[in-house]
Write a structure and sequence with these properties.
TIM Barrel, globular
Length: 377
């Protein structure tokens, strides 16, 4: 590995322009863990998943504002390209579940069926719309009545470009007691490459265009492998940028493996030898939470799988996704909230169980609960 790796991690918090406040020390300490130099901290990173989408429609400025106000260390924009090549923030190419596109008769003929990473989908797809067309749409709550607070904001917020999110984050970071970072995810890189969109080059152009991205804490994530290996070289000039390998369910193949006819599964990736391979190009590994600690038949969390310890031995930081406050997403033993739509105590307890297993950071739809879990409030 690059011998500069440890030092590049240790300066991330200072890159946000913060003095070494307690939050900054925690951020620097966490990001400094590398190749056995585990400066373990009691303050893992709270990663605001799509902002604070338990409270506001995902990937909207209101969602990111709420995440910052609630103490997230990082905010997460998922990146997909428009037809005219602009990076915007949506969780997937299909925008039927997160915008009001179906209510726009002028776009009715754009409804279609596509195969993405081997999965057949029907809907409207971001790559078929120009930015100007997308800007006529409004965001909506993905989970509908399961999140009535967020659903109340349906139709109020536009689709954001990555540039707009970066500008917001740079402004929000100024004068903040806690450092603020950004953790963009490149979505479906191989699929978009097949359509002529070089996602990694677009991200590189954004970094070059925004001074804040060149010195703030930044983690770039992907479920694919080849693009992260490429990014390791492309992003080498910037010492503030780390890479996170995401991992889906163990029996699934990576998107680039599907596109190329390869055989790599996430299960193989999460083996001890697979994690050694990941450490050759990435700084983090972040699996689905239940891969790390499955739910048992009686509704409790099982003891941690070896993945966390194996990853730390390989020199990787470990994240997990996604922690949500609704009972449907909690282990049965933590759903002690009656008929309430939210089970805050159960969510905090779940996060703390994973933190006790050694997580260095975690994605949550409700950063306020994540902050409570980390800080012990």
């Amino acid at each position: 590995m690059n011998p500069m790796t440890v030092s590049r991690r240790s300066i991330l918090a200072m890159g946000a322009g913060a003095a070494m406040l307690p939050g900054a020390r925690a951020l620097a300490s966490t990001l400094a863990q590398r190749h056995g130099r585990h400066a373990r901290t009691a303050h893992p990173l709270v990663l605001g998943h799509r902002g604070a989408c338990a409270h506001r429609p995902e990937h909207t400025q209101a969602s990111y504002q709420r995440a910052v106000a609630d103490g997230a260390d990082f905010i997460e924009p998922d990146l997909v390209p428009t037809r005219d090549g602009v990076l915007v923030s949506r969780h997937e190419p299909n925008i039927v579940d997160t915008t009001d596109v179906a209510a726009h008769p002028e776009f009715a003929a754009r409804k279609t069926t596509k195969v993405i990473d081997g999965e057949r989908q029907e809907g409207w797809f971001v790559e078929d719309f120009t930015l100007a067309e997308l800007k006529t749409l409004r965001a909506k709550e993905r989970l509908g009545t399961l999140r009535p607070e967020s659903m109340a904001f349906d139709g109020q917020f536009p689709v954001l470009t990555f540039d707009e999110i970066v500008a917001f984050a740079a402004k929000a970071a100024r004068g903040r007691q806690r450092p603020l970072g950004i953790i963009p995810e490149i979505k479906h890189s191989s699929y978009f490459h097949s359509l002529g969109h070089d996602m990694e080059a677009k991200l590189l152009a954004a970094i070059r265009a925004h001074a804040w991205l060149q010195q703030a804490p930044v983690i770039v994530q992907s479920f694919e492998v080849a693009n992260l290996k490429r990014l390791r070289g492309m992003l080498a000039p910037w010492r503030n940028i780390a890479l996170m390998q995401l991992a889906d369910e163990p029996d699934k193949r990576t998107g680039d493996a599907i596109a190329s006819g390869g055989t790599l599964t996430y299960g193989a990736m999460l083996s001890a030898s697979g994690l050694d391979d990941v450490a050759g190009y990435a700084d983090w590994i972040a699996p689905w939470s239940r891969t790390l600690m499955p739910e048992t038949a009686d509704g409790h969390l099982a003891p941690p799988q070896p993945i966390i310890a194996d990853a730390h031995r390989a020199g990787l930081l470990v994240g997990a996704y996604t922690f949500r406050p609704e009972p449907q997403f909690l282990p049965a033993s933590l759903r002690q909230c009656g008929t309430a739509l939210r089970c805050e105590s159960g969510s905090v307890a779940e996060i703390r169980a994973y933190l006790a297993a050694g997580l260095d950071g975690f994605f949550t739809d409700d950063p306020a609960l994540g902050r409570r879990a980390v800080d012990g409030a």
